[in-house]
Design goal:
The longest helix has 34 residues. It contains nine helices and 14 strands. The chain is elongated, with a radius of gyration of 26 Å. The chain is an alpha+beta fold. The two termini are 44 Å apart. It has a five-stranded mixed beta sheet with strand order 3-2-1-5-8. A three-stranded mixed beta sheet has the order 4-10-9. Strand 2 and strand 3 form a beta hairpin. The chain has two domains: 233 residues, Immunoglobulin-like (Sandwich), CATH 2.60.40.420; 87 residues, Immunoglobulin-like, CATH 2.60.40. Helix content is 34%, strand content 18%. Helix 3 runs antiparallel to helix 4, helix 6 packs across helix 9 and helix 8 packs across helix 9.
Length: 349
């Protein structure tokens, strides 16, 4: 009940208020704005499957409220009508074996269950599609402990855009997600766009949504997947077609080679960084998030902190300070090494 009230009010540790975004916010360097801008309220749906879930939620809530009112009303009436009076002696008349009463409390619950079952089956059929909607954008989602990897088709040419934790999609276009897990069971859940879908190792699941308005939509891994399950956050940014094309162009652009940070680039290659992280044209690591355009993102550590030079330096120095138990170790770099690598990463916009 407490969780249900949270979802009704939209109050959450990770969601405060809905916020629209401009196209510039998608491709420019991260700002210092509120990274928790968004809304987890399931009744503020912004996608066709989320609308269906909202409608059945209201139906269930309405039926439960009606049952509560009837039962409590009969209870209060009985307490008043049949309360013991001073002139009463002995036990009241016992009534049992009433066919109308027994028929009522058998037939009415049966009808309620039947109605809810039909409504649920209809909602499941409309939400859980077996094929991608016409004209959909197909995105591969790979869940890791404890971050999300996205592979988006490049609309501006051949190949695939690989990014992490923050997905950018066009408004009004169906998004067909193919869900994979690299390790344990996770669950993909963005309340305003669709319901929960499990992400299971060695099994492919699908889900879909179609954002109807521009904005940031927050989500959460909804299946306990380890110590940092609560900090495996989701961020979907819906933008207009022009902004989405601009994002694709930006994400497909080559990494800027800045001689001023050559020392940091060489350290990135010499140390263990390149073994885990990929940077297009620089390294091919596959265990950690792709860093090609890391500074175009808003958050770090799958949403645990805003991305800026300070948090980036703290993360590279010792990730455990921001996300205890994460799989990225501290390399115990000296200050000069740390400054050089961070300076290099800051150029990956």
């Amino acid at each position: 009940m407490f969780l249900f009230l949270i979802l009704m009010t939209g109050t959450s540790l990770h969601a405060i208020a809905a916020t629209d975004v401009s196209s510039n916010a998608v491709v420019c360097a991260p700002s210092s704005g509120n990274i928790n801008a968004g809304d987890l309220n399931i009744f503020h749906s912004a996608s066709p499957p989320a609308h269906d879930i909202r409608e059945i939620a209201w139906l269930v809530l309405g039926i439960c409220a009606a049952i509560f009112v009837v039962v409590e009303g009969v209870l209060i009436w009985s307490i008043i009508r049949f309360r013991k009076r001073a002139r009463d002696a002995g036990e009241p008349v016992q009534v049992f074996g009433s066919n109308p009463v027994e028929l009522a409390w058998t037939v009415i619950p049966t009808i309620i269950v039947f109605v809810l079952a039909l409504a649920t089956l209809r909602t499941i059929r409309e939400v859980e599609l077996t094929e991608a909607p016409a004209g959909s954008l197909n995105v591969d989602v790979i869940a890791h402990q404890w971050w999300w990897e996205y592979r988006v088709p490049n609309l501006e040419g051949n190949g695939t855009i690989v990014t992490a934790n923050e997905l950018v999609v066009p408004v009004g276009r169906p998004i067909w997600l193919t869900l994979h897990s690299a390790d344990v069971i996770h669950s993909f859940w963005i309340p305003q766009l669709n319901g929960k879908t499990d992400v299971i190792p060695n099994h492919v699941n699908h889900t879909w949504f179609q954002a109807e308005r521009a904005g940031i939509f927050l989500g959460q891994c909804a299946e306990y997947c380890g110590t940092q399950h609560a900090n495996m956050l989701l961020r979907v940014t819906a933008v207009d077609d022009a902004a989405f094309k601009a994002w694709c162009v930006h994400q497909s652009s080559a990494v800027v080679s800045d001689p001023a940070v050559e020392q940091g680039r060489n350290m990135f290659l010499d140390l263990a960084c390149m073994n885990c992280h990929a940077i297009d044209g620089v390294s091919e690591g596959a265990f950690g998030p792709n860093l090609t355009h890391i500074m175009s993102r808003t958050t770090i550590g799958a949403g645990v902190a805003p991305l800026n030079p300070t948090t980036l330096r703290a993360w590279v120095d010792d990730p455990q300070n921001l996300k205890v138990g994460c799989n990225m170790p501290s390399l115990e770099l000296d200050p000069n090494q740390l400054d050089a690598i961070v300076a290099y990463l800051l150029t990956l916009k």
